[in-house]
Amino acid sequence: MKTIKLFLISALCLFIHEVDAQYVFIPDQNGRPLTDARYQNLTGSPYFVDEWTNAEVKLADNNVIKPAEVRYDMVEDKLLFKQDNKVYEFSPKVAAFTLMTKNGNRTFLLKDDGNSESGYYELLSDGKVKLLKKNKKVILETKGYNSANVEKTVDENKKYYVLYNGAEKEVKLNKNSFLNALPDFKDQITNYGSKLSKEDDYVKLTAALN
């Protein structure tokens, strides 16, 4: 079983600290959004939510800040913030962040073990069993027949993982997959009486195991 190096956070600190001097905010050369040119004439959104939102951000040095305008770029897997109408990138990557969206707070944790699956994972359910989602967006480019125009569209790829006792396993959204990944909870999963079909159903199932 693979182990996963995750910055696990049950609740973000409520206090704001000054950013440590080693933490650097990097703007692009002209202060424009870092990904502006690439995302022109694009069908679909490269962001988790298009709007700039309030956030709580836990830095790599464990300090917490509360920037007013943050956006998560899911194509580049980068957290951006806006200040004085300029867009900046957090560098190094932050340990975790919570976006205050119109549909509620959404928390993301950094998995950084040096492989291709490193990046931000959404924490769907917390506790002794954690349910995580990696939602990766990519840009697909297609050219019509006998056309010089290139159409760019956003495609999404979702993967789910359970984390228990320090071990990570990928799961599908079906009961058998959860049974195979979490044998210690065989009885609870087998006897779970609620409907299991959508993502939210498995979020509730995982929460019931904690």
UniProtKB/TrEMBL annotation:
Keywords associated with the record: Signal
Signal peptide: 1-21
Domain of life: Bacteria
Protein name: S9 family peptidase
